[in-house]
Amino acid sequence: MELAYPVGLVVVAASIIIGFTALVREKDDLHRILLTDLAEVLALVLIALVATDLAEALILPGLVVGISELMAVSEVYIAKEGLRAPEGPAFRIEVMDSAPGILALILVAYGIVLSGFTGGAIAAVGAVFYFMCRGHTEQFELIETVSGYAWAFWIGAFFIFMFLPAYWFFAVMIAGGAILLKVMAKMSLVGTMRRGGPDV
Amino acid sequence: MPVTPEFVLGCIILIIGVIAAGFPRPTTYLSRLISLEIPGFGLLLIMLAYDEMLALLTFVGVTAISTFVLVRAIERKEAAP
What ipTM was reported for this prediction? Predict the structure, then answer.
């Protein structure tokens, strides 16, 4: 800790100066959105240098806020410029027909083993990849319902923590499983953005 | 904690990546998007040096989704006349 932390701080300070110089000199809006992603990475390095469990607890919400901010800004940009989906046939690659099944299965299984927020994110990547490659026909009301029940279970687990602390392990299991379902259901909706369902 | 090789490598890759992403040589959207992966890798190495496993895995997952979101915006921008 005695040497690594100051060295890391100097490196991050230099990176921030370079990154924001690039951001100031850039005129194009989409380039600026890309550089916002760079600024997010630099902020996460700054938090990671704390090097305790606190850093980990701060990075997770930082990532969530970063991805939702990026999605919102890119949506606003697309709406402001009046951009449309490209015409013509969809982009076809052979791997996109054969890979999604097995890859999504591996990612979702690994996500369930991890459980909690991280597991939800990993499983969601599998679901996003599957929806992106194969298209989607399922009802979104079902996903929304599952997500709502998962949230209720999550809150219920916190009540167990408060009123029946003896059963903490049971509550940990409920909370881990519920947040897995919740994050996965919400993030897998991202995968449906490409093929233009009625809700997009 | 002593300075580990992962930490040193992560710092070097971070600086290189910030320069590469800040001033890409052909200034196109795609080259900047690809260069953005380099500082991300530096961040991963720094997290690895500090044993932040949960943060590392979540960052990998979220980066895949954010790349997808950015590609969607770039695709529409390039298709516009």
Answer: 0.91
